[in-house]
Amino acid sequence: MESVTHSILLSPPDVGPDEAAAVARALESGWVAPAGPDLTAFEREAAARVGSPHAVAVSSGTAALHLSLLAAGVGPGDVVPTSTMTFAATANAIRYTGARPVFVDSTDIDGNIDVVLLRSVLRRLRDGGQRIGAVVPVDLLGHVVDYTAISALCDEFEAPFIADAAESFGSLHRGRPVGSFGFSSCVSFNGNKIMTTSGGGMVFTDSPDVAERLRYLATQARQPVAHYEHTEVGYNYRLSNVLAALGRAQLRRLDSMIERRRAVRTAYRDVLDRIPGVRVLGRVSQDQHENCWLTAVVVDPDRAGWAASDLARALAAADVESRPLWKPMHLQPAHAGADAAVTGVAESLFLRGLALPSGSSLCDDDLDRVLSVIRSVAG
After folding, report:
1. How does pLDDT run across 56-73, given as a tens digit for each residue?
2. Which three-class secondary structure string do you get for the chain?
3. Are residues 262 and 232 part of one domain?
4. Number of domains the chain is built from
5. Catalytic residue positions, numbered
6. Are 69 and 103 part of one and the same domain?
7. Mind listing the pLDDT tens digit for each residue in 246-258?
8. Are residues 94 and 207 in the same domain?
């Protein structure tokens, strides 16, 4: 193998001169605060992108989830069913409110929440007299959950549907943009996401009252009077105007960045689908038009003759970053003893799955380097 000259990262920020110019203009405007014209415009433009009447830009995807749960009235004593295969932020935000997460296992095809299992969990909780504060499914690695089925379940069980779409901004479900579903939808603009504001997130909602409540809580719950008056506890969760300027520039490039990630996934599929015991995580469906945020391989070691961990070691030796899939929340020490409906699928995907470099800035030469390592391991 030719000498390695640089690291290949999993999903680095894809920023350039457009973003630099936008940030410079924001700085020159003097609006270097969590308020300003770029922040207002970013919310308006992002809302238009997803077809949602209201958007509230905040400091992180975690903040978006926390605020949404509070706005839905979730609090101590409530239970909140959610995906067990997710980043810690989902479960942490539920815990912030004093509610208890109930972890629901995954489907093997894409790692998303098992809707049939979710129904049984909701029935058990209701029949047990527990208050279901909300339901929070997660779009794993940009794979979109069955929003249609989950919306129907939430209506049936009279529970607010809060979509953790942190990883799926730009995706569609049955032709409808992610961000336009549920009581609210929460996205992340962290540095490794499909588009970035460095750190940041956003909540989309159809309700003007919910949007007003979110903004109020995100600005320290300050009352609209001349002095500083607070009748309840709020949070310092608003996004900076400077970072919103970065987000506006990224939003204009979103379609091209998604197109590149799809091309990367196609290249992986062309190689991986030929290897016995190996598959790309996720389904190929016109109903689920995904942003391809991260492409992950799932390896059956008995059939392939090698494991995902073997590939991870070979990639690391070539200075290529990879990452196991999320360790399920029901296996995390921080949530030991939590209620969970488990089938073993999420744990199996954690042990057999590996996320591969998927960034929109991944050039063809670097992609070839990754594919060469995969071929060498596969023999």
Report:
1. 999 999 999 999 999 999
2. CCCCCCCECCCCCCCCHHHHHHHHHHHHHCCCCCCCHHHHHHHHHHHHHHCCCEEEEECCHHHHHHHHHHHCCCCCCCEEEEECCCCHHHHHHHHHCCCEEEEECECCCCCCECHHHHHHHHHHHHHCCCCECCEECECHHHCCCCHHHHHHHHHHCCCCEEEECCCCCCCEECCEECCCCCCEEEEECCCCCCCCCCCCEEEEECCHHHHHHHHHHHECCECCCCCCCECCCCCECECCHHHHHHHHHHHHHHHHHHHHHHHHHHHHHHHHCCCCCEEECCCCCCCEECCCCCEEEEECHHHHCCCHHHHHHHHHHCCECCEECCCCHHHCHHHCCCCEECCCHHHHHHHHEEEECCCCCCCHHHHHHHHHHHHHHHC
3. no
4. 2
5. 193
6. yes
7. 999 999 999 999 9
8. yes
